[in-house]
């Protein structure tokens, strides 16, 4: 279980198969721009993934609670704390999630895209994650 957060924890994440550990999803808006509040239990992270788009697309993360990580393939992981902003371009392989010892929440904004889709890839291994 997780503590309640700004914008609400919501429901157990229906995309949980693409995560290591437990996370929660609260859809905030779905009509014009898709905005969701995502809360990760300590140690939880999503698989490596790519937000694809023919035009536009990508994702913006706004960290609001706890400590987490964002990593692009081939680059060092960046620590996220409340107020951190991450702009993820379409086509870039990456993952995001909580720190080992902290519940973590970010708002995720789907940048409007032409033919946008998500490609879910391999999990972030314990070996990679535990180095952080
Ligand atoms: Mn992402």
Q: Give me the CATH architecture, please.
A: Sandwich
The H/E string reads EEEEEEEEEEEEEEEH
Beta-strand segment tally: 15
Shape call: globular
Reading off the top of the CATH hierarchy, the class is best stated as: Mainly Beta
In percent terms, what proportion of residues is strand?
A: over 45%
Adjacency order of strands in the biggest sheet = 1-3-4-13-8-11
Structural class: mainly beta
Please tell me how large the radius of gyration is: 14 Å
Number of domain modules: 1
Helicity range:
under 10%
Could you describe the largest sheet, including whether it forms a barrel? 6 strands, antiparallel
What do we call the CATH topology? Jelly Rolls
Summary keywords:
Jelly Rolls; 132 residues; 1 helix; six-stranded antiparallel β-sheet; 15 strands; binds manganese (II) ion; three-stranded antiparallel β-sheet; mainly beta
Could you characterize what this model shows?
This protein has a six-stranded antiparallel β-sheet, with no helix packed on it. The chain has a three-stranded antiparallel β-sheet with strand order 10-9-12, with no helix packed on it. Strands 2-5 form a two-stranded antiparallel sheet. The chain has one helix and 15 strands. The mean pLDDT is 97. It has one domain: Jelly Rolls (Sandwich). With 132 residues, it is mainly β. 4% of the residues lie in helices and 48% in strands.
Brief synopsis:
The chain has 132 residues and is mainly beta. It contains 1 helix and 15 strands.
């Amino acid at each position: 279980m997780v503590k309640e957060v700004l914008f609400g924890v919501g429901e157990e994440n229906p995309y949980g198969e693409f995560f290591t550990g437990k996370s929660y999803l609260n859809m905030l808006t779905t009509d014009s721009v898709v905005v969701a509040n995502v809360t990760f239990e300590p140690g939880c992270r999503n698989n490596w993934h790519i937000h694809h788009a023919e035009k536009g697309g990508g994702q913006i993360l706004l960290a609001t609670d706890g400590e987490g990580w964002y990593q692009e393939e081939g680059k060092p992981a960046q620590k996220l704390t409340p107020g951190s902003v991450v702009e993820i371009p379409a086509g870039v392989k990456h993952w995001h999630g909580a720190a080992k010892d902290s519940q973590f929440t970010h708002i995720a904004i789907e940048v409007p895209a032409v033919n946008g889709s998500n490609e879910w890839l391999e999990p972030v291994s314990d070996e990679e994650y535990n180095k952080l």
